[in-house]
Design a protein that fits this description.
- The complex is a heterodimer of chains A (109) and B (114).
- Chain A is built from no helices and eleven strands.
- With 109 residues, chain A is mainly β.
- With 114 residues, chain B is mostly beta strands.
- In chain B, 0% of the residues lie in helices and 49% in strands.
- In chain B, strand 5 and strand 6 form a beta hairpin.
- The chains are: A mainly beta (109), B mainly beta (114).
Chain lengths: 109, 114
């Protein structure tokens, strides 16, 4: 079962623009994490936000969490070509970490 | 260097054969995970283990088996009972002590059934 669902499935933006991806989930969670995957590679952890946190920043990344709506968003500011990748949210509950299907982000030159 | 290694990177198997994928970590992490990823899809949890000699089924455990005899090792066997095993397999680990909850991933093994 997929706990998290990312939206949109695919996103193309011009370099320098901001990219926003959303994640919705179904059940209560301990924390929510965002990962990046370059084509054919393993996943790289970006940021973790706990259920009692509402917003977190890391460099050009900003993550928000709304537990009442069971949703999270990932904002990448001032996008770069190197940001082209798939982005996944993962919900952590009872030591099971469940991933969504991801958003494929393409940064246009 | 600390990290997670998976081997081999590419693996080819004939139908009807069992095959074992290796996953080793030297991060002293308690928990280890196996995921399957199909093209253009997210990761689906196969098995996970939080402690040596114990493991739990994930969402798609049928046709797979695991063992956790050592803390640093969590091999996955894809058996002949798995009807569609061609996929990208990812291993991950993490510590369970607060606040270190992020998962670290290996580079993956791409399995192709001929």
């Amino acid at each position: 079962s997929q706990q998290g669902e990312e939206d949109p499935q695919a996103l193309s933006i011009q370099e320098g623009e901001n990219a926003t991806m959303n994640c919705s989930y179904k059940t209560s969670i301990n924390n929510l994490q965002w990962y990046r995957q370059n084509s054919g590679r393993g996943l790289v952890h970006l940021i973790l936000i706990r259920s009692n946190e509402r917003e977190k920043h890391s460099g050009r990344l900003r993550v928000t969490l709304d537990t009442s709506k069971k949703s999270s968003s990932l904002l990448i500011t001032a996008s770069r070509a190197a940001d082209t990748a798939s982005y996944f949210c993962a919900t952590d509950r009872d030591d099971k970490i469940i991933f969504g299907k991801g958003t494929r982000l393409h940064i246009l030159p | 260097d600390g990290g997670i290694t998976q081997s081999p990177k590419y693996l080819f198997r004939k139908e009807g054969q069992n095959v074992t994928l290796s996953c080793e970590q030297n991060l002293n992490h308690d928990a280890m995970y196996w995921y399957r990823q199909d093209p253009g899809q997210g990761l689906r949890l196969i098995y996970y283990s939080q402690i040596v000699n114990d493991f739990q089924k994930g969402d798609i455990a049928e046709g797979y088996s695991v063992s956790r005899e050592k803390k640093e090792s969590f091999p996955l066997t894809v058996t002949s009972a798995q009807k569609n095993p061609t996929a990208f397999y990812l291993c991950a680990s993490r510590g369970l002590a607060y606040p270190y909850n992020e998962q670290f991933f290996g580079p993956g093994t791409r399995l192709t059934v001929l």
